Amino acid sequence: NCILIASWSSKLPQGLDVEISHHPITLRCVANLIIVMERLNGGKGFALGRDESLLNFLLESAVEGSSRAAFSSKGEYECSVTDSENKCWVLNEGSMELHAMMLQGGSSYHKVHLNLSTYITPVPSETKARPVALGIKGSNLYLSCITSEGTPTLHLEEVADKEQLKSINHESDMVRFLFYKQDTGVDISTLESAHYRNWFISTALQQDNTKMVNMCQSATPNRFTTFTVQRHN
């Protein structure tokens, strides 16, 4: 996305400037701007405030451009996640962290179940990755990716108002709650941060005794970045 700032002060009525900013450049946007400029330049002593149709035209164009620049929630389903060693995600409530652990028979109830929300991207993408938000079922906790000491890390954040997550502007810090889910096989996926590209949710080898689920860059040694995402409904 680009910032387009157009100012035609020499062609507009005295004291009037046109400025468009923070909207993706599209053919419709350019066409709309040309139409507005033609109408403004064609009328001597034109009063913008008294042309209701033009005001509506500008407002509708602004709203449409704004909606295209947002990730829009599409649906939600319940799922659970296991890594390549069949370790499950478990919530450590004391440290408010997700840990990857091997669960035996009677302890399977510790496995975290997620509410996975899918999104429509604001602009077409060449990849088939789908933006998703990951919330822990039965809570207001959501996975997010933020920097800690300059390094992207995985966190659990409480979201009191979940309406905030229904539409996320692509330039807002709420993008930290989004991850690109790229399917690499049947129920096998990677989860890449939408805020920090090329950083993936990952788990460590069982032998490393590092339980915390965290972020890593692709191809980081001794880290798993592919997961089985099992849908439950």
TrEMBL record:
<dbReference type="GO" id="GO:0048246">
    <property type="term" value="P:macrophage chemotaxis"/>
</dbReference>
<dbReference type="InterPro" id="IPR000975">
    <property type="entry name" value="IL-1_fam"/>
</dbReference>
<dbReference type="GO" id="GO:0005615">
    <property type="term" value="C:extracellular space"/>
</dbReference>
<keyword id="KW-0202">Cytokine</keyword>
<dbReference type="GO" id="GO:0001660">
    <property type="term" value="P:fever generation"/>
</dbReference>
<dbReference type="GO" id="GO:0005829">
    <property type="term" value="C:cytosol"/>
</dbReference>
<dbReference type="GO" id="GO:0019221">
    <property type="term" value="P:cytokine-mediated signaling pathway"/>
</dbReference>
<keyword id="KW-0497">Mitogen</keyword>
<keyword id="KW-0964">Secreted</keyword>
<dbReference type="GO" id="GO:0010628">
    <property type="term" value="P:positive regulation of gene expression"/>
</dbReference>
<protein>
    <recommendedName>
        <fullName>Interleukin-1</fullName>
    </recommendedName>
</protein>
<dbReference type="GO" id="GO:1901222">
    <property type="term" value="P:regulation of non-canonical NF-kappaB signal transduction"/>
</dbReference>
<dbReference type="GO" id="GO:0005764">
    <property type="term" value="C:lysosome"/>
</dbReference>
<dbReference type="GO" id="GO:0005149">
    <property type="term" value="F:interleukin-1 receptor binding"/>
</dbReference>
<dbReference type="GO" id="GO:0051781">
    <property type="term" value="P:positive regulation of cell division"/>
</dbReference>
<comment type="similarity">
    <text>Belongs to the IL-1 family.</text>
</comment>
<dbReference type="GO" id="GO:0071222">
    <property type="term" value="P:cellular response to lipopolysaccharide"/>
</dbReference>
<dbReference type="GO" id="GO:0005125">
    <property type="term" value="F:cytokine activity"/>
</dbReference>
<dbReference type="Pfam" id="PF00340">
    <property type="entry name" value="IL1"/>
</dbReference>
<dbReference type="GO" id="GO:0006955">
    <property type="term" value="P:immune response"/>
</dbReference>
<dbReference type="InterPro" id="IPR008996">
    <property type="entry name" value="IL1/FGF"/>
</dbReference>
<keyword id="KW-0395">Inflammatory response</keyword>
<keyword id="KW-0666">Pyrogen</keyword>
<dbReference type="GO" id="GO:0042119">
    <property type="term" value="P:neutrophil activation"/>
</dbReference>
<keyword id="KW-0458">Lysosome</keyword>
<keyword id="KW-0963">Cytoplasm</keyword>
